[in-house]
């Protein structure tokens, strides 16, 4: 005999995981794809037999381009995250569950920006980092509490 409560709980958990993943991917915008491209160039440069490629000379990774993508993504997050919270309130009517889900979404966003920040610090000059203006981990934490 199948325990119906356990079955419902498992289904709810899978649905919440799916929701968290989809919302996170939507909020990542083009930053996730950018990180994948940058990591491909970095891994090519680590191959001793491959010719070295200047990351900051790649059209998709020029400092101004990165700055544009990061600024655009910030606006996207600032616009979408409150709407997501409102929709969850409408459908869930349970602030504890809403907070758990939002915490996971915010955590994944924070990790993405930390990864981006580390890539920028290790691959761009101080001047280029100023142009890019990627938020520091502390700023990201602040964003997540405000949004």
UniProtKB/TrEMBL annotation:
<dbReference type="GO" id="GO:0006891">
    <property type="term" value="P:intra-Golgi vesicle-mediated transport"/>
</dbReference>
<dbReference type="GO" id="GO:0016020">
    <property type="term" value="C:membrane"/>
</dbReference>
<dbReference type="GO" id="GO:0017119">
    <property type="term" value="C:Golgi transport complex"/>
</dbReference>
<dbReference type="GO" id="GO:0005801">
    <property type="term" value="C:cis-Golgi network"/>
</dbReference>
<dbReference type="InterPro" id="IPR007265">
    <property type="entry name" value="COG_su3"/>
</dbReference>
<protein>
    <submittedName>
        <fullName>Conserved oligomeric Golgi complex subunit 3-like</fullName>
    </submittedName>
</protein>
<dbReference type="GO" id="GO:0007030">
    <property type="term" value="P:Golgi organization"/>
</dbReference>
<dbReference type="GO" id="GO:0006886">
    <property type="term" value="P:intracellular protein transport"/>
</dbReference>
């Amino acid at each position: 005999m199948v325990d119906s409560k356990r079955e419902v709980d498992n289904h709810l958990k899978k649905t919440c995981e799916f929701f968290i993943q989809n919302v996170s991917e939507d909020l990542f915008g083009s930053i996730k794809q950018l990180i994948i491209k940058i990591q491909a160039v970095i891994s090519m440069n680590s191959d001793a037999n491959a010719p070295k490629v200047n990351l900051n000379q790649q059209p998709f990774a020029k400092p101004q381009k990165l700055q544009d993508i990061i600024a655009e993504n910030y606006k996207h997050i600032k616009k979408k995250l409150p709407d997501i919270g409102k929709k969850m309130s409408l459908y869930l009517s349970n602030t504890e569950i809403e907070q758990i889900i939002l915490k996971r979404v915010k955590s994944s966003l924070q990790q993405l920006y930390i990864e981006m920040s580390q890539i920028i610090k290790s691959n761009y000059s101080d001047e280029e980092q100023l142009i890019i203006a990627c938020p520091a981990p502390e700023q990201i934490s602040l964003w997540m509490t405000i949004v």
